[in-house]
Design brief:
The structure holds two protein chains of two kinds.
Chain A (H helix, E strand, L loop, with lengths): L8 E5 L4 E6 L8 E7 L6 E6 L4 E2 L4 E4 L5 E6 L8 E8 L12 E6 L1
Chain B lengths: L3 E4 L2 E4 L4 E8 L5 E7 L6 E7 L2 E5 L6 E7 L2 E7 L7 E8 L9 E2 L3 E5 L1
Parallel strand pairs in B: 2-11
Antiparallel strand pairs in B: 1-3, 3-8, 4-5, 4-9, 5-6, 7-8, 9-10, 9-11
The chains are: A mainly beta, B mainly beta.
Chain lengths: 110, 114
């Protein structure tokens, strides 16, 4: 499985945008980029996924580099509730396993 | 209802005990999963059930025994565990086993083995 690399932690101020990077230099053409997050004392929850084009939903936006070797999860206005560990995961048609990497712990300051 | 429920929330057991963790979903999902998560680490996949049949066992020791009695229920039977098995055990479900199917996670059972 292709690997992802994320910063261990990031800090943001409340109500400011947050850009969470993910590197996946060995991504294959059939790998989709998925993001999950895990709030304190909860199980992970799905955030967003994409293949090549940028994607938006009610929670976040996903910006995918043209060469697909990196992507960025964008939270447009961080709230205290967004403090969580964010996982960038690659998944493809070859399997349905979800392999979590170390993730980025996001701290949000009031 | 997009909820996955897990019971109990906390469990303390001795190394000679037998206990079970339960997971339930009523979303009509046909795939269910068990993950193990140690403190400050990401979740690790243990088992996958697809249409009530075991599809994946990630080389989990036999002291963990999964069971899927029907499409809504998933159990994890525990026997002769070791202290290093203490962890958060997460259950998840998804509509199917497509790589695009979103997984819904329960809040987990925090297990302590003494």
């Amino acid at each position: 499985d292709a690997k992802t690399t994320q910063p261990n932690s990031m800090e943001s101020n409340e109500e400011e945008p947050v850009h969470l990077p993910c590197n996946h230099s060995t991504i294959s053409g059939t790998d989709y980029i998925h993001w999950y997050r895990q709030l304190p004392s909860q199980g992970p929850e799905y955030v967003i996924h994409g293949l090549t084009s940028n994607v938006n939903n009610r929670m976040a936006s996903l910006a995918i580099a043209e060469d697909r070797k990196s992507s960025t999860l964008i939270l447009h206005r961080a709230t205290l509730r967004d403090a969580a560990v964010y996982y960038c995961i690659l998944k493809n048609t070859g399997g349905f396993k979800t392999i979590f990497g170390a993730g980025t712990r996001l701290f949000v300051k009031a | 209802d997009t909820e996955v429920t897990q019971t109990p929330k906390h469990l303390v057991m001795g190394m000679t005990n037998k206990k079970s963790l339960k997971c339930e979903q009523h979303m009509g999902h046909r795939a269910m999963y068990w993950y193990k998560q140690k403190a400050k680490k990401p979740p690790e996949l243990m088992f996958v059930y697809s249409y009530e049949k075991l599809s994946i066992n990630e080389s989990v020791p036999s002291r963990f025994s999964p069971e899927c009695p029907n499409s809504s229920l998933l159990n994890l039977h525990l026997h002769a565990l070791q202290p290093e098995d203490s962890a958060l055990y997460l259950c998840a479900s998804s509509r199917g086993t497509s790589f695009l199917d979103e997984q819904y996670f329960g809040p987990g059972t925090r297990l302590t083995v003494t």
